[in-house]
Amino acid sequence: MMDTVQQAKPETPSKTVDRFFQSIGWKPFRFQRSTWRAYRDGSSGLVHSATGTGKTLAVWMGPILKWLSENRDRQKWQPKRPPGLRVLWITPLRALAGDTEASLRQPLDHIGLPWKLESRTGDSKASAKARQLKRLPTALITTPESLSLMLTHEKLLEQFKQLEGVIVDEWHELLGTKRGIQTELALSRLKKLNPKLRIWGLSATLGNLEQAKQALVGVEPANSDNDNAVGTDSVRIIEGYRKKRLHLESIIPERMESFPWSGHIGIRMVPQVAEKIESVNSTLVFANTRSQTEIWYQQLLKQRPDWAGRIALHHGSLDTSVRQWVEKGLREGALRAVVCTSSLDLGVDYTAVDLVIQIGSPKGAARLLQRAGRSGHQPEATSQLAFVPTNAIELMELAAAQDAIRAGHLEARPLLRKPLDVLAQHLVTIAIGGGFHSDELLREVRTTQAYESLTDIEWQWVLDFVVRGGSSLDAYPEFKRVERTGDFYHLTQRRIQTSHRMNIGTIVSDAAMHVKYMKGKTLGTAEESFLSKLKPGEKFLFAGRLVEMVCVRDNVAYVKRSKGTPDTVPRWMGGRMPLSSELSEALRHKLHEASQQKLTGREMKALKGLLDIQQKWSIIPQANQLLIEQIKTRTGFQIFLFPFEGRLVHEGLAALIAYRISRDRKTTFSMACNDYGVVLQSPEKTEIDPDTARSWFSTDDLMADILESMNCTEMAKRQFRQVARIAGLIQQGLPGARKNARQLQASSNLFFDVFCQYDPDNLLLEQSRREVLDQQLEATRMHSAMERINQSQIMIKEPPRVTPLAFPLLVDKLRERVSSETLADRIARMQMQLEAAAAETEK
Questions:
Q1: Domains detected in the chain
Q2: What's the mean per-residue pLDDT of the chain?
Q3: Is the pLDDT of residue 177 over 60?
């Protein structure tokens, strides 16, 4: 009788993946399995799920399962000869690459997959980049900038043709930005190289999913005549967990002042915040600006000196080594708390974080939800967030944000249309990376949502710009970058290739200087506009330390440790976020409820005293009302308007209304704005009736009046610096020879003036003006707000005193001409007088 040897059947790919999930204590969710099947079937798509619910594994296991199904015989796996490039993972922040790599490596190691996984970002070593130019790994983690850089290397194109899938992480962070459009253009090139390419995006907290999907995958396949191309009908939106368990609470001050002002509560809440941190193992403390993180970190250490070494600081201007140390401490649970900005909004997994504390309003429901999700970063865990108001009215913002989250009204990301500076940069990139034929590249570019409506005239203009600098720069050889041979465009000059590669990307900020000890390490970077104003000996908070300016040399600010109190705190550009339109609407609804004596939740009940005074002295505006208050103070006649439309809209409205009033009656105004309203101050009283007020908000001749009322030419000139830098007109220079902000602005001003005089139809000029209107003034949102106000009831009141809603605007007005110490004393006296008057009214 012959013995029969029954060979064990090889494990199925599904069993292999299930075994991995068991090893980490999870079971695959339905949305994850749906994503794996869609990837297997050749589809592209967008996975939308709350933070911490397994989106990463939803997309990552798709390529792994596909490879396993094609390579079932483990005996044939060759770890020393890993497969070529199959997956490209695009992350919006290079700081996330390390965490992402660790997370993606986990299933590879557990399964024993013979894949090579690497990163390629601006932080990667030169030796690793050189090795990758010869052979790319099986899976590569990179950024939009590094991907564009790789497209300048013609020898990589053959490897990109073998690429099976691209995964774009945190797509909501790129959507509606020039970096997002840079990504769209790069994806269109990859689709051209491989029409069967799968493209998947990951997103949380996003309100316009269809637009996001379309921007990600494009409007049609790059080769529309190719039967193998993946059509847009095979594009999926896969919903995971939209509503993760969430617990929000406010840390409400023991005494709620009835006359609040911006920032006045903040530091007073340090003891309560420290108590909250003490109650859990690990906390992220989010502040909206880097300056606030520096202050809160110092104040928490002052409150609890024994926490030195157990709490840390994290923001984008700190040195990479410092940030990496903090991130490692978070992962390992070694830190009790980290005070941070949006630098930790994104990331893979900080499962050790038990609690998130938000200092001040996040100005948007989606951002609040995103940050809350950094705690309980596991599918079944509850995210915990404690909110610390910096002024009393911010409690109303939290109540409004909670309503918006419950209703699912998250902010949409408005999309950019046809930025020609990004397109010009892309054309130079492709010209270096093998060249292009005009008609073919135009068809490719039009497959992106951003350039779907690009006209032939615009295309020819951009081509002419990269070939000879356009009509006004034709005489200057340095602007002749791309060479044309018939209909073929390419770039062969070594100097221009190097310069382009060194300046590739769309991130434009004020020139930064390194901050370094005279003897020792680099602390990080701060903006030149701040550091250049400091005198030797001045003290400032930076990287959680009190340092003293010594000197500036070779674009480095040298400092030394100091003692005492700081003279200043660094100010970084872009810190002040306006209230989102969705949160503005929710806020107006909360006020409407309050006007009906309906105060729901702890936050609104805590504001009862403030709202009672507002109602007695004036009114609480309903959703269909615009409140205007007039009052005389010792500094002049004040007009307070309360549209509740966000700071940027109010800045535009203030200038517009002042212009329209002064056009009819000669007077001068000074003004201030916040997220809730506007104050206009004049030396004499302005007579107002509802019809007069309504005329201020007329949309007739709106664009012309905006251009007249604001120094839009100067604003466009500053915006043009960014456009010119991205388009390649001006260069930041090579490492060690970077131009400072003043040099860059001078160069861009020269081009701006030349174009205005000799090439007024220059499309980059037009773009810079449009960006000022759309981004700095939010002109579209302003127009919508004015239309809403025109349909509203105008309520004009002359209260006996400055009301609780008006008080923070009056304080902001005083800041312009009163020193900080004097201001605090002045405000305290004003508050005492108003509180006494309110108490008298109660009797």
A1: 2-239 (3.40.50.300), 245-406 (3.40.50.300), 512-561 (no CATH)
A2: 88
A3: yes
